[in-house]
Amino acid sequence: MVFERKVLSMDTLKFHSKMRALLWVRVAFDECMVQERLWWLSPSKCRFDSKPVTLGWCYPPHGWLKFNISGMATEEAMGCGGVLRDEERNVRALFSGPCDAIDADLAKLGAIITALDVIIEIGYMGTGLIIVEIGSLVAYNWLLNKDRRPWLQQTTFADMERRLACVGEVAFSKAKQHGNEIAETLASAGISRRVMFKAWW
Fold first, then answer.
1. What gap in Å lies between CA 70 and CA 99, rounded to an integer?
2. What 3-state DSSP class applies to 69?
3. Handedness of CA 31, 71, 55, 170 (dihedral sign)
4. Does residue 26 register a pLDDT over 90?
5. Residue 163 is assigned to a structural domain of this protein
6. In this structure, is residue 47 part of a structural domain?
7. Which residues cross the membrane (predicted)?
């Protein structure tokens, strides 16, 4: 930060540290099960006493990447988040931040658009097959059936279609129970953020 003359707020620095630590814990220790929603409040108190019974995250097919996304809403604010992983569960990109939406389902559409923007910014367009996995059945049905899409959100869907045309082959899927936890954690953290955080490697 000194050599590149960058300035980070304490909030952003804490977010970076907690996010990297969470990803490291998830990859390094399969037996260490944490409640990811509590991670942001108190990392020392979020460990499960016993291994929970979950269906968990499903690996994408060989050669595919999977982008789990989520949008959340409170009475005061909306947030969205997403994590891109490969077939070995390695995190390739993530985002978390505020979302301009009027409810949780529309926040999920904002999360899809942000995920597509990340794919374009990384330069993955047309280079691989990507699954975008979403937790909301309502939003998933909107993606599959254009007749069910809310009329007032036609501009949002048009923006999404333009990005999809740039990205290439994208398949949408509905996340299984407990299969979208990191994305939900990022969306929950995004509610309290003032700006969108994006990172990839």
1. 11
2. strand
3. negative
4. no
5. yes
6. no
7. 122-143
Q: Would you place residue 111 in the very low, low, confident or very high pLDDT band (cuts 50, 70, 90)?
A: very high
Residue 34 structure tokens: 């944490």
Nearest to 178 by CA among 4, 34, 30, 61: 34
pTM reported for the whole predicted model: 0.74
Distance of CA 164 to the CA centre of its chain: 17
Mean pLDDT (the chain) is 81
Task: Look up residue 30 and give its DSSP letter.
Answer: T
In the structure encoding, which two tokens stand for residue 100, read together? 């301009």
What does the alpha-carbon distance between residue 196 and residue 84 come to, in Å, rounded to a whole number?
Answer: 16
Q: What is the domain-level CATH number for residue 174?
A: 3.30.420.10
Question: How many independent structural domains does the chain possess?
Answer: 1
Residue 5 lies in a domain: no
Any domain includes 100:
yes
User: Which element (helix H / strand E) includes 185?
Assistant: helix 181-191
With tokens 């003359």, the residue in question is 5
**Residue 143 CB contacts under 8 Å (≥ 6 apart), including other chains:** 112, 134, 172
d(CA 163, CA 90): 25
Amino acid at 112: I
How far CA 92 is from CA of 30, 76, 140, 182, 184, in Å, comes to: 19, 31, 24, 13, 17
CA distances from residue 111 to 49, 118, 122 in whole angstroms, order as listed: 32, 10, 16
